[in-house]
Amino acid sequence: MILYEYPFNERIRTYLRLEHLFHRLSKLVPRDDALDHHFALATIFEVMDVAARADLKSDVLRDLEKQKQLLNSYRGNPAISEDALNAVVQQLHQCFEALNAQTGKAGQTLTENDWLMSIRSRISIPGGTCEFDLPAYFAWQQSDANLRQADLQRWVETLKPMSESIQLLLKLLRDSGTGQKVMAVGGQFQQNLPQGRTFQLLRMRINSQAGVIPEVSGNRLMVSVRFMRHEADDRLHACAQDTAFELTLCC
């Protein structure tokens, strides 16, 4: 099964982008090859670029507090485990405190590192990090893998409060939805959204053997899916076959 996700607003879109980058970092940093560590460093800079949005930190803090208040409203409900509830509320509190204690945006302290910023200024230039452009960076790439990993872990640590907060918020958001089996007749699917509810994320699970790719559009009133197929001419063509998939709406 292949899982696709579609955000309904810019805030969730930013969260998903950061989650994608943090996941990439978690795969690259433990490796030993200098090339992997080059792309890990490039990913750190991408995180800093995404996190440069002025209101991101306040959005995350506000969402953490909102989730904590929502979960606290469930106290006393016999269908809810108090131990599980306390554990999640404690996680939200810890994420809030750690993120709130940071000064400035995610990765702000890294901007004070002149060596890193010299790499950042050239890493987007094609071939801009060659040894004759950045000999100090080239020397770092030739150093022992354990030393490079230690440096990367130290730099990633400054992004950890944001990473853990977004991962927790997205987990709670995904857990809020219930999947339903639906059919795209003739490769097309459309559904009106219930009034009075604001959905933030759409999730789709599609059998990988179906060989189709979804094109999703949606707003607060409706969601529409059109299935495409990657053909031999390396272009996407509309798929006219009936396609079953699992749809989850999260709010």
Give a short synopsis of this structure.
The chain is 48% helix and 19% strand. The protein has 251 residues and is an alpha+beta fold.
Task: Characterise the protein shown here.
The protein has 251 residues and is of the alpha+beta class. It has eight helices and eight strands, in the order E-H-H-H-H-H-H-H-H-E-E-E-E-E-E-E. It has helices spanning 10-28, 34-50, 56-72, 82-101, 114-123, 135-142, 145-157, 160-175; strands at 2-7, 180-184, 188-192, 201-206, 213-218, 222-230, 236-238, 243-250. Helix 1 (10-28) packs antiparallel against helix 2, helix 1 packs across helix 8 (160-175) and helix 3 crosses helix 8 (160-175). The longest helix is centred in the middle third of the chain and has 20 residues, at 82-101.
Keywords:
8 helices, globular, YacF-like, four-stranded antiparallel β-sheet, single chain, 251 residues, alpha+beta, 2 domains
Helix content range: 40-55%
User: Biggest sheet, strands in spatial order?
Assistant: 1-4-8-2
Look at the structure and name the CATH superfamily of the largest domain.
YacF-like
Strand content of the residues, in percent?
Answer: 15-25%
Based on Cα principal axes, name the global outline.
Answer: globular
